[in-house]
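ok, trying the design again with the full structure, not the truncated one.
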């Protein structure tokens, strides 16, 4: 179901299932059990509120998380060993992970594949690299990430302050690409996405309710504003470690942003490549229009397993791919409230995001 592209093998790779036929070392099995116990104990102590997909989410060290991803976080903190060449793609939900996954994979492997017969066309961007938050306990035995080719790439939705210092400390050389988006569009996108995934045993989450929860910060991986601010501040302190991108800038000038991305990844485009149109080829390959029309991203094209309970069809990662869809959902009063939270939260930070005045 979730198949990763492992460039070194020049082929698709099916990760090992921890619950499948493969023998798990007893030590590792015990470690999983211990973590489950720790998780149970921890959840009993945390404040909880309404989840968008499942019944409850929990406030853990300042961020609202589902029990499954708290388990992932415990595992990352206990077992994940960052390598100096790792590149992490970080984002709040629905801010551009799918797009960036495609761009990063296509950029890192541009000498390996032809654009006309590219593995992204067959497998889609979700297969490009693992989603650390849940794949750490789902697809891979803990040690398995060690075998991924360098530079390893991982996606995460975790806030910067939640990550282990082996990943986040300015003295470690691994890098982060962070992408953010107008919170109004992130809210609309997230409400649509989570409504599709929401447990059928629960009553639907109305848009007004989702709006209230979002404004109050109660939303998986949120509060949105603290998430963005954490990475923004870290990127200001260590620009060589964190590249801070905006979805809106990427829509406006994809080639400019892609060149920034490639240079940051340590893989700048040469003058020859630029002349030969490589930048434009990657932009086209990874565009919403191209990716959303691929067979693999259409009905019956495939799905991603995030946890035992959460399986998402590839096509659900593509909706409109536009800037400003919020205008079709928010009243003037609702827009005003979100923009004013953004203004207040980002005051004196040097960051602006999605303010209507800006546009
Ligand atoms: P995730 O948090 O579940 O990983 P993510 O990929 O970050 O989702 O965001 C999905 C949004 O990006 C969707 O936005 P929308 O609901 O407003 O339409 C999706 O349509 C959009 N998207 C996906 N791929 C692309 C792309 N190649 N270019 C631009 N937008 C894209």
């Amino acid at each position: 179901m979730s198949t990763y592209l492992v460039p070194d093998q020049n082929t698709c790779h099916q990760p090992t299932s921890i619950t499948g036929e493969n023998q798990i070392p007893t030590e590792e099995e015990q470690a999983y059990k211990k973590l489950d116990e720790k998780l149970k104990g921890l959840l009993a102590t945390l404040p909880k509120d309404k989840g968008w997909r499942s019944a409850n989410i929990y406030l853990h060290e300042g961020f609202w998380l589902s029990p499954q991803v708290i388990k992932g976080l415990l595992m990352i903190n206990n077992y994940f060993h960052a390598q100096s060449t790792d590149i992490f793609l970080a984002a709040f939900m629905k801010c551009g992970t799918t797009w960036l996954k495609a761009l990063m994979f296509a950029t890192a492997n541009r000498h390996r594949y032809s654009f006309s017969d590219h593995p992204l066309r067959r497998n889609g961007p979700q297969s490009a690299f693992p989603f650390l938050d849940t794949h750490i306990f789902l697809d891979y035995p803990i040690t398995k990430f060690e075998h991924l080719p360098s530079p390893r790439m991982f996606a995460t939705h975790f806030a910067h302050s939640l990550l282990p210092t082996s990943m986040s400390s300015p003295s470690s050389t691994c890098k982060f690409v962070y992408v953010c988006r107008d919170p109004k569009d992130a809210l609309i996108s997230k409400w649509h996405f989570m409504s599709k995934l929401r447990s059928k045993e629960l009553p639907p989450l109305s848009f007004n309710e989702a709006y209230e929860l979002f404004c109050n910060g109660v939303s998986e991986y949120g509060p949105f504003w603290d998430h963005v601010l954490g990475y923004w501040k870290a990127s200001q302190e260590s620009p060589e470690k964190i590249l801070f991108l905006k979805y809106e800038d990427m829509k406006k000038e994809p080639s400019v942003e892609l060149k920034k991305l490639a240079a940051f990844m340590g893989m700048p485009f040469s003058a020859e490549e630029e002349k030969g149109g490589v930048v434009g080829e990657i932009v086209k390959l990874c565009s919403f229009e191209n990716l959303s029309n691929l067979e693999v991203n259409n009905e019956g094209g495939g799905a991603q397993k995030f946890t035992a309970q959460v399986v998402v069809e590839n096509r659900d990662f593509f909706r409109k791919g536009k800037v400003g869809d919020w205008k079709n959902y928010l009243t003037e009063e609702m827009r005003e409230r979100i923009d004013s939270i953004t203004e207040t939260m980002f005051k004196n930070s040097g960051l602006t995001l999605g303010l209507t005045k800006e546009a």
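Keeping the full-length input from now on. Residues 91, 93-99, 185, 189, 192-193, 286-288, 291, 317-321, 325 surround 3'-phosphate-adenosine-5'-diphosphate (CB under 6 Å).
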